[in-house]
Every structure is written in C-alpha cells, then in structure tokens.
Give the backbone structure.
Amino acid sequence: MKKYKINLFKSFILLLLTIAGTSCQDLTEAPEGKLTPETFYETPAQCEASFTASMNALYTTWSGYTADGFFPNGQNAWPNTSLGYEPTANNQFWQWHYKALSNINPVLKAIKAGNLSKFPADQVADITGQARFLRAFNYFILVRLYGRIPYVDEDTPDLIMNPLTPESRIEIAAMYDKIEADLLYAAENMYDRDPANPGKPNKWVAKGLLAKVYLTRATAPLNQTENYAKARDIADDVIVNGPYDLVPLVTDVFKTSNVNNIESMFAFQSAPDYPAMPGIDNAPDEWGGWGDGATKALWADSYPEQPRKHIYLLTDWPVDLYDIGGAWVDYPNSSSGIPWNGKRCWPNLTVDQQLTDAGNSGVIMPILRFADILLVYAEAANMAEGGPSQLAVDRLNRIIDRANTPSVTEVPKTNIPGTEPLATTSMTKEDFDLKVIAERDYELCFEFDRYFDVLRKHILMEVNLPDDAANYVETDYLLPIPPFDATLIGNNPGY
C-alpha cells in the first residue's frame, strides 16, 4: 500500500512537469479547504459515526466476533482447539482491534484541538467518554491476548513516518493504568442509559467494564490482589444503583424477540447493513449447519442438569424444524455426534431465522451482561474478604436460581426444575471461588468470556485435558504478534 502511494505520487509529479513544460498558463489555485481527520470531526454526529465504524471493524457478517470457536477454552470443539500456536494463530484479533482504534483516536485528537468547542460541555464530555471507553475496551482485549503491546493514542506520531519499535511495547501494568484512566473518565462523564439507543455505551457500562478490569488485575498475570476490593465496590455500585437487572426466565435471555433487554449492558448490534451471521452457521448437521457452533461433548456432559443447559446448549433437537412435534435426536445419536451452541440456535431464533443461509439471524452478541456483574461481585468480594459473605452468596445464587427455574418452551427438559446446588456461606474461600468460576463457565458460555477467565485463572492446560493439551507450552498464554508487526516490535516468547 505504501509503495503504491509513492508510485502514484511520482506519476502525478511527472504529469505536472509535463503540463508545465508545454503550457504557459498559470495553473496555481488557492485550495478552499483541506479535509483531514482533524478537520472532519466537527459535530457529535460525525464523532459517533466513527465510533460505529470502530465497532463495525469488530463485528460484521462473515467477520469479527460473529463466531466463538477461535480459542481452546474447554468449550469449543473446533476449529482452533489445539494448543501450541503457530506464528499466525488468531492474528485477526490484532488487526481487528488496532483497526478499531484507528477510528477512535482521530476523534480524540479533534476534540483536543477544540473542534467541538461550540457544543455544550456536557455533550463534549459524553463524546469524549464514549471514545475513551471504546479505546479502553479495545486495549483491554489486546493486552489480555498479547501482553506487552504498543499503545497508540491521539498523541502518537504518524506511524508511517515514525514506525513502531520494540520500545513501543509498554509494560502490562502500564497498559492497565491507561485503561483504568479511560474508564474512570468515561464513568464520570458519559450520559446515563438511553433505552432508545441500545448500542451506545453509557456510564454504567463503563463502570461494569472497569469492575472486570480490576478483577483481571487482581489475577494472573499481574496478581495485584488489592484490586479485588475495587472490583467488588464498583460492581456493587452497578448492581445497586444501575438501571440493569436479570431477565426473570433463562429461556428469554437470548431470544431474538427480546434483544437489548434489561440484562444487556453492551453488545455487538446487528442491523440490515451489518447483519449477524446466518442462523444456519451454528446449526447442527440435521439442519444443514456450517459447523461454527461445535461444542465439546465432555464439557456439555459436565454441565449441570437444568433448564439453562437446554437453552444455552443444543443437546437434542428436532430432526425437522418445521415438524417440531416429529422425531427428535440427541447429540450422541446425531449426524456429527456432538452438541452445539444453543445461544445462537432455535428456539432463541425463530425457525426462519435459524434456517436462513444468507443472514440476518437477528442475533445480538453480548459484550457485557448484568449476570456477569453479579458474578464479578461474588468472586471479588469472596477474595477481598477471605471468604463468602451472605451478600456474595446471594448474588451468586441469583444466577443459579434462575438457571434451575423451569419454563415452558418447545424444548423438552426446560420445564423440569434444575438440580444444581446453591452456594452457601459455609464454603471455604477456595471452594466458593471454584464455584464462581464454574458458574461463569456455564452462564457466560459462547460469549468470548471463558477464554479470558482461563487465562487469568491460569488453567489453560487443565481445561484442554484430556484431548487438546498435547501441544501445550507455557508460552500459549500469549498469542503471537502477527509476522509483519513482529519484525518491527519483536514477538512474544515462544514464537
């Protein structure tokens, strides 16, 4: 791309010289304006359009966070379930998130230059908060996947003229300091929740993400345990004072007829221009599925027997969706012999949405849910206080109670009460922590969350036993830097 631009520039100069040599006409013109990123962002609407573009870099049909089978998290059956990464493994995450950042930083640069000075101060602060929230969100994912990485912001010199070097990679703790600063600003300056604009982040979303940042700092690789109390306190603020709550029935959480519900805090939005993946993508073979929702049978078998299991997982299903009352098959006797991602399948989708092979399935993929915040509180409070308090137990049990509550659906077994045991205050700190992490595994499955729990709890090899851990090495806890960028800044150990 760079070479092409240089050659094009040379051709243009030659053309001008030719014209100058064959004509005495004065071609000098005074340009009326120059459009640059700094001059383009002059209204809040223009800034928010750039935020939309940054999210589109992460979620569009056929690209981005439209499937959950990227990581060996103990849930996914394929395609990337083996450890011992190759140098190009999952390079797309690096590309997606730095592309998203390239749409955010110019807005912050324009705001710093005073481009929005004619607008009310609170509106400018909200726009700035949105930008800083989105920047923190992208770096939070990048630092967990890649460790020490370059920090590029609105003050970073042009990267073409000033290429990155190994010294551009900052320490992990320093990156978290920057993420925390952005989220604190966003939490203090963004507007409250606007139900009419469900895709727009707000101050409560910033607080919720900040609680997860604190919890992550308290665990591996930093193990800064003083952050448990911070995670507990800010999660408590969201739970007590925020506008979110659990959807009463687990069978309603992921229905496409109930998207952006009271539990959904922040999500990848689908729309006619950017539709979610076709429903057939995650479907079993009997429905003509494409295989992206393949789930490990060993993990599915360990999942507690309860209504939630039969809504979040597809363990048995009608052979013909247009004949629900006809023959059904359970996964051991199915064509592929494995269960599937139920969150992106019928009955959360309509039959027509499920069987479409051209999009749009209508799926809204969550980034942050209220259930997650309850679980963050339970984990952080237990670790900060040396054992489970009654409040931590109660908040964890809200998730379990809902999972066990029967409902009437087309799916057998969802009308039978679940048997998962509740947490109690008599549990040790260690046992309660294991209970919370297991509950996160069950409740947040297929939401791009489990892999980060695996990393911060340092259980990558354990969750991939017995079948996918053969190539495990300790350096698998970080992904490889993409080859071209690695030539500039160096790679992670082991690659």
